[in-house]
Design goal:
Blueprint lengths: L10 E9 L4 E8 L5 E7 L6 E3 L5 E3 L2 H11 L7 H17 L4 E3 H15 L1 H11 L5 H14 L1
Parallel strand pairs: 4-6
Antiparallel strand pairs: 1-2, 2-3, 4-5
Helix pairs in contact: 1-2, 1-4, 2-3, 3-4, 4-5
């Protein structure tokens, strides 16, 4: 492992422990050259997942797209970065537990919406308004009524 500070590739592991509910290993490392410490995470590499978009194009699954959507919907909301990270991990675990090679983006969107609903109601409505492409106030109000009736 190359040191992120000096670039030297002589580093050693000084501590290892499970992370992300035993889905990863957190390793604390120290550089033999500069003496600085840093953390790395080791995760099992999964088979590539292909996402089928609305226009039927296919692209490789990208976690950062889910992350950016959730972060945008939670902007200026009382949701911690840890809660967002946990939600993204939960979403990703659910997607990969389906054990499919291809998944439609609308299915991912529904999984994200189900998880965001538990995170923050305003974030849910924000995400839903973009994801479901509300055309007018009536469809927006209909979604709000469904949200309120589900509680």
């Amino acid at each position: 492992m190359r040191c992120p500070f000096c670039g030297d590739d002589n580093t050693r592991v000084i501590d290892s422990r499970p992370a992300d509910d035993n889905q990863a290993i957190r390793r604390r490392r120290q550089c033999d050259e500069c003496g600085k410490r840093f953390t790395t995470y080791e995760k099992v590499e999964t088979i590539p997942l292909i996402v089928i978009k609305k226009d039927k194009n296919r692209e490789t699954y990208d976690r950062s797209k889910i992350e950016s959507g959730i972060v945008r919907s939670c902007h200026k909301r009382p949701v911690s970065a840890q809660d967002i990270e946990k939600a993204i991990d939960d979403i990703e675990n659910k997607i990969f537990s389906l054990e499919v090679k291809e998944i439609e983006s609308k299915h991912i969107g529904e999984i994200v919406m189900d998880r965001i609903k538990d995170l923050d109601q305003v974030a849910y409505v924000r995400f839903a308004s973009v994801y479901r492409e509300f055309k007018d106030a009536n469809t927006f109000m209909s979604e709000l009524k469904d949200l309120l009736n589900s509680k």
